[in-house]
Amino acid sequence: MEQSWKQAKAVFAAALGPPLAWLVVFFVAPMAIVWAYSFGHNAGLTQIAITGTFQNYARAIEPLYLMIFLKSAWVAGLTTVLCLVLGFPVALAITFASDKAKTWLLLLVMLPFWTNLLIRTYALIAVLRTEGYVNMSLEWLWKGGGTLAALAGLKPFEPFQPLELLHNNFAVVLGLVYVHLPFMVLPLYSALDRLDKSLLEASLDLGAGHLRTLFKVVVPLALPGIASGVLITFIPALGAYLTPDLLGGPDSQMIANVIERQFKRANDWPFGAAMSFVLMYLTFIAIAVQGLLAKRTPEGRA
Amino acid sequence: MAKKSPPGPLEYLRRWPMRAWLAAVFVFLYAPLIALMAFSFNDSRRNIVWKGFTLKYYDKLFHDSALLEAFANSLTIAAVSTVISLALGAMAALALWRFRFVGKTALDGAMALPIVVPEICMGVAMLVFFARVMPWPQGLPWPLDLGAIIIAHVSFSFPFVAVVVRARMASFNREMEEAARDLGAGEFRTIRDVILPHMAPSLVAGALLAFTLSLDDFVITFFTAGPDTVTFPVKVYSMVRFSVTPEVNAASTVLIVLTVLLTAAALKLQGNAAATAGHGGDGK
Q1: Measured between CB atoms, does A230 come within 8 Å of chain B?
Q2: Residues of A in contact with B97 (CB under 8 A)
Q3: Is the pLDDT assigned to residue A60 strictly greater than 60?
Q4: How far is CA B175 from CA A260, B96, B182, in A?
Q5: Burial bucket for residue B273 (CB in 10 Å: 0-12, 13-18, 19+)
Q6: Which of residues 46-85 of A touch B (CB under 8 A)?
Q7: How many Å is the maximal CA-CA distance in chain B?
Q8: Which residues of chain B does A30 touch, with a Cβ-Cβ cutoff of 8 Å?
Q9: What is the rounded distance in angstroms from the CA atom of residue B203 to the CA atom of residue B89?
Q10: Which UniProt keywords apply (chain B) (predicted)?
């Protein structure tokens, strides 16, 4: 049983004091200031007058910015779905692998997760850019095909046109999937691993096929885990800054890029503050929805 | 195939479509990284056609004082913020595990905030905080000039440590603590000789997590750092913005190797629990 704090006040204060103080001074206070700024307006170059105005929030839902919110949600949603589709079979295979294979596969999933985000994004740039590996391979194949065609007496191919793979929305979604796939696989795996395997065997014995077992038995039982995987992927994807910044084009801005611009270049802190709190509220809504879903399922303790 | 038994109904890993899928996913995850590392040894600026093996970009790297400084900054920040995070995280976990008090649920929620809040929001909060409330003095001698970044890093990593340590403490038998007390150990002695040894594996896992989180962080550092303090990710970012060069490849390779070594060391130290413990708490 937990002890009441009154029984050992000195220990309680010594243990809780420092972390609590740190959290309040270096996390809650900065957040609270941003929150206060979101109700203010620029008064002079470095002065912000907090007047309790809601005009920053009103501006955040103007069509221009509303579209960016919707687009970010759409990109993050697409990323999450793609990660789920790609990652589910991986998680399933890991769950039913032998112990030794399991260790190695988990390690393989985790290593990219530990690798620096910037480096992984940079690696993708090298793959996708106009002189990147994909385009070079295609060009090589194209030339080879052209040579073959010339040998066969056909008219030579047109000069190779490199594909525009970088600086567009495709690159952003690809980059987000690349970065967040391990986020999805690990919670899926931990949910599937806890599954009672005899239920699957029973379903297969009773004549259901693999796909039917998957959708009627595995998915409903693993739903809390799937929900937490979706959440863990969706939240960082929604607030992604680096991926759209480096891989995206002028039309692939996401919320985080708009916020960054308000603070670093446009110098409109109150509006940036409002935008970042809208993003926070969206995050909290996503967490609340997941919490509700987890409660509704009978075994829901993800 | 006659000699091998056919795959059992649940041995998904032995079915070829599953294997092909797995292989494709791992190629997707690893091919860009492996290409990046391979081309850091390529003797050509164009970075595409293989022209032969060279170490000249590594040589360049080790003579590039700006990059080296950034690297040293990153390692210092990671080391210091890991130590502070470990202390704060373990204290918080101990308090939350041992005591019942008014507002515990609220504190639990507040501790989870730095984990779930989008990086960009925390980044701007730190920017505002260090610009308006607690301006970090300019021109301090190294490593004091890194203070603001270290503070920001501790703020987002110590709750992770707390989650990992607390998960570990759940398996602690409280009677051991009582036994220690009955046998005459004081508070401090009990914590040092009974609780800390039980915590140890989670402290290693937490340290690894905090260190990697700090080394990995770009967004929050980008907002916190003054114009004079550059960390490795911030430096790479400014290099990447301009072009893809073999120097960046070489620098990235060094960091990837470092990450792999750190992970391997942590796994060796205490079995697989380290890596999975870190992820068990992740994102909750």
Answers
A1: no
A2: 2
A3: yes
A4: 52, 18, 10
A5: middle
A6: none
A7: 75
A8: 122, 125-126, 128-129, 133
A9: 9
A10: Cell membrane, Membrane, Transmembrane, Transmembrane helix, Transport
CATH 1.10.3720.10 segments of chain B: 59-278
Chain A residues with CB-CB distance to B94 below 8 A:
15
B22–A90 C-beta distance less than 8 A = yes
What CA–CA distance (Å, rounded) separates A265 from A269? 10
Chain B residues lying within 8 Å of A280, measured CB to CB: 117-118, 121
Residue of A nearest to B273 (CA): A103
Residue count of chain B: 284
Question: At which residue do the structure tokens 């960091």 appear?
Answer: B255
Ranking A168-172, A240-244, B12-16 by mean pLDDT, the lowest is: B12-16
Query: Burial, B26: exposed, middle or buried (Cβ in 10 Å; 0-12, 13-18, 19+)?
Result: middle
Cα–Cα distance for residue pair A188/A186, rounded to 1 Å: 5
Q: Which residues of A touch B46 (CB under 8 A)?
A: 131
Residue A281 in any domain: the answer is yes
Cα radius of gyration rounded to whole Å, chain B: 23
Helix A269-296 vs helix A255-264: angle between axes, to the nearest 10 degrees?
150
Local confidence pLDDT in tens for the 284 residues of chain B: 445 566 666 666 677 788 888 888 888 888 888 888 888 887 776 656 677 788 888 888 888 888 888 888 888 999 999 999 999 998 888 888 888 888 888 888 888 888 888 889 999 999 889 888 878 777 777 777 788 889 999 999 999 888 888 888 888 888 888 888 888 888 888 888 888 888 888 888 888 888 888 888 888 888 888 777 888 888 888 888 777 778 888 888 888 888 888 877 777 765 544 444 444 333 33
Interchain proximity A118–B33, CB inside 8 Å: no
Distance from CA of B245 to the nearest CA of A (A): 9
* Inside any domain, residue A2: no
Q: What is the pLDDT of residue B47?
A: 58
Class of domain B59-278: mainly alpha
Counting the structural domains of chain A, the total is 1
| ipTM of the complex model | 0.82
The mean pLDDT value for A192-201 works out to 81
Domain interval for residue A275: 53-114+165-301
Torsions phi, psi of B100, nearest 5?
-110, 135
CA–CA dist A232, A224 (Å, integer): 12
